[in-house]
Amino acid sequence: METQEERQSAEALLSEAEPWESWESKLVLWSIGIGIAGLIVLGLLVNKFILD
Question: How far apart are CA 1 and CA 4, in angstroms?
């Protein structure tokens, strides 16, 4: 049997998306992209100046 609290929790999870969800998703994707680009640039710099 489902309790009232479980039912309310399920309704909250299935409700409409929050208004900032698209902005937040873009922020996460940009952050991951900048992180990957930074790793590539730093890897190239280490390869050129330290490993030579």
Answer: 10
* Confidence (pTM): 0.62
Distance CA 51, CA 44 (A): 10
In eight-state DSSP terms, residue 33 is H
pLDDT tens track for 13-50: 777 777 878 899 999 999 999 999 999 999 999 999 99
CA dist., res. 4 & res. 43, Å (int)? 54
Largest CA distance in the chain: 68
